[in-house]
Amino acid sequence: MTINRRDLLAASAGIVAASGLGKFGMTPAFAQGAEPKYTPEAGASLRLLRWTPFVQGDEDAWLANTKKFTEATGVEVRVDKESWEDIRPKAAVAANVGSGPDMVMCWFDDAHQYPDKLVDMTDLATYLGDKYGGWYEGMRGYAVRDDKFIALPLAAIGNAVVYRDSHMKAAGFNEFPKDTDGFLELCKAMKAKGTPAGFPHGKAVGDGNNYAHWLLWSHGGKMVDESGKVAINSPETIAAINYAKALYETFIPGTESWQDINNNRAFLAGQVSLIANGVSVYYAAKKDPALAEIAADIRSTNFPIGPVGQSVELHQTSSLLLFSHTKYPEAAKAYIKFMMEADQMNSWIAGASAYCCQPLKAFASNPVWTADPIHAPYARASETLRPNGYAGPLGYASAGVMADYVLVDMFAVAVTGQMTPEEAVEQAEKRANRYYRV
């Protein structure tokens, strides 16, 4: 039986509206403590800053749930959106000047850059965690500081390899390689056939960071050790850079300037046949009749395993943070609680069509994850992600290093020949030490 996206969303939304968790096969234990009650302040209105959606159903479902909240409470919620690259600086400005949006869908460990500017939401996080099977540990780490929830985990946007099946086979491969050596040979063969790969070495918040961290970790490198001491200058890092240089030679020209939108555009334009992306590129192809051939040819898989011998991937993560400068903290917490409850969360996950992976374990049974084979590599993003601060603790330093694109830049200057691998590593080490002061 073929399930199209419209059928999937209609069915999922109907199930959710009818019975919440029951039809999803979930039987969560309800909160051990009292459910927190938030009474919106008189005349309250809220403003949320969120990232521009790559899957329209994500925004549509979010806005529909927001409308339900307003109808139930009378609290108007203005939802603004910015490009992925602009969310981080705009959130930082709001935190520092003490005005602007009440809430932000932030990236990775951004909340750790200004924890004293955020409302403690531990009571709400405890309630939701108890009720819905617990938080995924990796996502929880992004939102917790000193045992307090300075934000609420919202979603992991899974990143996977997306490729043209017919082009892979034309390059002489019947199956997608499972290791990095085989992956490099595939990319060489696809370039020879005029159907190259492309991975971003530009300052792409999602795809650039995901790719750079996979390159490093798959070869056993790490930015810092368990104590938070900078450990990027290592033989493993040099090996990762040399591998990246070999891959870069197979890419379409110009990937050193790519941001998050560029690989989508290049893939859908037929300029490249292998990228790393969220499921959004698949749905962009499906909704355009002119791209029907590409949509039917798309396959997805997880990143290959490198010399380290295990799957190690960074996935884009987003948390909801609430600024202490808000005039209406009770209304804001009521809104966040409403959006995280089963009816709303399940309809949003379904609406996003496997683009947004749940932060709470109970929602892993949402039928969206088994509705299409293309969704499979994205289904466990929240469970399998490795935090960007690995192997040290998350905090101001890890957030600063990522926001400053230290790792992304290290690979970019090396693969483009601006620096030798050794020079690139030394530069990254110096930059990282500005944040990880010991």
UniProtKB/TrEMBL annotation:
Pfam families: SBP_bac_8
Places the protein is found: Periplasm
Record-linked PROSITE patterns: TAT
Assigned GO CC terms: periplasmic space
InterPro entries (UniProt xref): Bact_solute-bd_prot1 (IPR050490), SBP (IPR006059), TAT_signal (IPR006311)
Main location: periplasm
Keywords from the named record: Periplasm, Signal, Transport
Protein family (similarity comment): Belongs to the bacterial solute-binding protein 1 family.
Name of the protein: Carbohydrate ABC transporter substrate-binding protein
Organism expressing this protein natively: Mesorhizobium zhangyense
